[in-house]
Task: inverse folding
């Protein structure tokens, strides 16, 4: 049993908290939230004591900490937990600034504490199968990766304003997936974006519809497209072309029932959003973290993975703003 | 070039006539129809001379005859054409009476003339591929065959009244397909039927919705279902289960375009009816007939195939009427 | 919180036990099994006390009992639990004898205790959606129902010998589904069966491949096929044709990943077996039982549903053995 | 009957020639080819007289000319045929130089002769249905268009060397389709390309794998990807996202037969190449040309469509070579 504390009891924190409470190999030792009532409510639901962050980090009985607080607090909490010699799981992103991430990773590295970044999609059973089969060579040498992500509906503009923009907030998952699948670092980014879904998003200086081209040193190409609107559900598709063929992951529909009538054949929309679509991914992500803490195996995705995805998001943001393709620093 | 005459210029006759006129290995020598105006119209369209049946059969230059007249004239025309030493293609069925078919086949056999029966589905590229792959053992030993045929809409009751009933008129294609796929003769037939689509069909003594179970001596099972109604197009599916797996043939949709919106995913209906759905099958059927005439190879489906399908249709009709399963005479 | 005891800790009992232990509205008060070690092992895993059946039934604090013991004990345990004034959930079947079921239901009726029979498929989200949409008229008036069930591999012959035969052991789920979907009682059964998968099954007097035709008083037709072999996974499909169109439920595949290469397009097998395929169904089944106990609503499927399915299974068994279609007594 | 002559009897010329010979509304008056033997062979097959280009253009009885010669002769032949007052159909592209195209179109415009450019995909039944349904608003306001084209295998390097490069030779069809679907001119092009399929293509200065991003003045985005390799057949897919949903056109498979066994579910590859995949498109293209000649309706795609697609291909070529996005001149 690994003794784990969780910091941050918001939407994603509550999800991790429930998985943690149900996990047979975890002892859910404590939880904290900046808003005491939020922490209390979740603590009572799960029968977990609410404690302060300082107290948690000072408790030598707690082996691991899951950081699910607001983004601006991630880097500092990672550093403090690592300094306290705890294994750290942190929700993406480490920070909106690549420089800040780099500094954080340096400190974590010095501490020797293990750090895992929460790119949940790598743990989706289908996407991890896709990646495994690519590595096993079923599609041959990879030539082109196409990733499509479409959210059902845009978040509130208030959220958009603090999000770092679509490339950092939403497409960062796709940048991580691109790296995960390509098996090679992108060196060049082209980006185009528009505000077509909600003019208020444009007025807030962001885009809601965007597409990116990545190219690696070996010449492999990756297409990514994102939208904040998808009337038929949370669209999450990946397609990889290689010298021997194509491997792709389809969407998951909400039902297997089909109607055929004079209007044709109708099947159900796809799963509605990430909490539902990636439920098994979040469980498997936690499994991996706990396994690594127990076994001493280095967890993945690493802090470096978090940094690399952020650098791609930064470069895409600049590419979109300047209209000029950007090179990715090594 | 094979010199061919065609008897009967109705719906199915006209279809064969157009294929014959376009066929590079056929000389379309003459056509006849009981209704002179029908023959004239088609003859002018295709540039083919209209002649009388007697004249056609007496012409030694004509090597082959395609019989597409009304069912009640098939057996006699086959006999006369065979006696005149012509290769004969006859649309199914040879006759509504198995005894009459048997007598006809005896006379054809005596004449030595080749006879092919028009079970077009055997020549559908997909269904013939299905049969070939079954023979090659891809599904292993066959255990169960399921055939589904649904017409878009019922024919006029006046047609139903002269048709011999659903089992002889419509399901006969499925009986032939069952034999084609099973590779073994059914020995037992169970049948249930109802008039659910159009009460007038029931009043005419027929059914419009029916299902049959066949069993072979080796214990293989075949399910057939037919309906005179299918709002989403002409439904034609076959599924075969064997010791190693399943082979099935899906429907063909009228379009590849799909719409996804808040109501889900919508694809087009399936092809509307047999003339459209089986266009390539009719062409390949004619190819086979002409190839056999030219090469001397025995054509298939044979007259015996026509007889066997009719015996199954007869047995199913009795099984439905009496409520008792019927044995198929050897 | 409903206080529930569970009798029988075998495969299906353990499944219900784990769902019960995790259910927020249930207090899992006790469990029992004829083999003490089996009960102890599960009790320790779930932290549930092991008690004797007599003790459980005598405990006035226990409101509900789930009967998951061997089939030959079901009827008596139902009667005793009902006499003790407990709500009863019983795994299918109540008994292999329809007479015994009828006697049991009479006693339960006298007691006034609620009784629910475990036909889990009715609670599958997809199949219950299918049934709901049929009732709402999306397919129009029902004309034909086709149900296909194929197990991945046959059970041991020792199991087959005590099972009551394929029609009672396996197809009983499909008979219940037929009644659930048709909305009308079948009045006639035709059955054919063979031993094609494993000759030892045939020697044990049973079949491993079977097909049935049902007909209702209104003339609706139902096709059911079952096999004890399915190399591509647990095949569970239903298709319903009505006057306005078709509603069908497809299989669930184990992965969304597809490979396209020179050999074509390949997708994953379907889910492997019922415990995996119907995981959500078992949870929803328990939800319904607990909801009914709490609210006083009458649970479904009822004892009468259990009896009706058993009568169809009996009739199919006789139909297969005699080669004669059977009428279903009212 | 329209009297039509065809110039150029190579692969695409022969295809048009066979469609022309079979067309009920065309009189195929003459054909010509730079290689007399090629012309003779096709002429004999189709029973069409072979004549010289000068003679054909001088014949007042010939109303229309189809230009299927090598690309470098297109512009001049168009100009001469237009000057001779004939309706002109010309295979894409008009020329590899946009300036030359512009000059040609000016002369054609002066002559008043109708000119149609052979972008066959607009006439594919599925793609034209897709465009029609977009115009009818089924997907709402268009936000993003994704076009994928993958050839089964690369052409000979000798062909590549004279082709103008992938963007002009292959992707030009996709540029035309983008304009056809977007309903608005792209104003900006980003392009990346690599030689991953065949190093000889790279040595010849071309790419075999490429992706492009287009953006319109209204901010609509189009992704195009092309490859010279596709092991599973000629991959031709289009997906359009709009404010109300997605409309997409799937591939056409070579067979409806599916095998399910222990390895999963396998379906056939997609149609092998453009002559097979777009057979109906070429027929409908000819229908449209002949209809326009007969009725006086202006044919589409116009010369301007040919010019616009070429400008996009030129801009993509420069974008790829310089690594800088290009603006499209108005």
Result:
């Amino acid at each position: 049993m690994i003794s784990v504390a969780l910091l941050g009891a918001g939407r994603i924190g509550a999800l991790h908290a429930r998985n943690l409470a149900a996990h047979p190999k975890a002892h859910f030792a404590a939880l904290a939230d900046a808003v005491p009532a939020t922490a209390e409510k979740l603590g009572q639901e799960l029968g977990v004591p609410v404690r302060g962050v300082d107290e948690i980090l000072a408790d030598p009985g707690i082996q691991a900490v899951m950081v699910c607080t607001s983004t601006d607090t991630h880097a500092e909490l990672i550093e403090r937990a690592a300094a306290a010699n705890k294994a750290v799981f942190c929700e993406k992103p480490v920070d909106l600034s690549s420089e800040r991430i780099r500094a954080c990773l340096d400190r974590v590295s010095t501490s020797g504490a293990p750090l895992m970044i929460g790119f949940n999609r790598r743990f989706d059973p289908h996407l991890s199968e896709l990646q495994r089969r690519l590595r096993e060579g079923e599609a041959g040498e990879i030539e082109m990766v196409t990733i499509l992500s479409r959210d059902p509906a845009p978040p509130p503009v208030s959220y958009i304003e603090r999000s770092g923009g679509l490339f950092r907030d939403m497409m960062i998952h796709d940048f991580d997936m691109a790296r995960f699948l390509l098996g090679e670092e992108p060196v060049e980014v082209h980006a185009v974006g528009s505000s077509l879904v909600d003019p208020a998003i444009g007025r807030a200086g962001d885009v809601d519809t965007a597409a990116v081209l990545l190219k690696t040193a070996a010449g492999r190409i990756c297409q990514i497209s994102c939208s904040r609107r998808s009337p038929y559900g949370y669209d999450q598709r990946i397609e990889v072309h290689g010298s021997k063929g194509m491997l792709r992951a389809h969407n998951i529909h909400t039902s297997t029932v089909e109607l055929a009538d004079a209007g044709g054949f109708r099947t159900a929309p796809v799963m509605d959003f990430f909490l539902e679509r990636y439920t098994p991914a979040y469980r498997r992500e936690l499994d991996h973290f706990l396994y690594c803490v127990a076994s001493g195996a280095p967890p993945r995705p690493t802090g470096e993975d978090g940094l690399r995805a952020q650098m791609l998001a930064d470069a895409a943001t600049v590419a979109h703003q300047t209209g000029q393709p950007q090179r990715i620093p090594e």
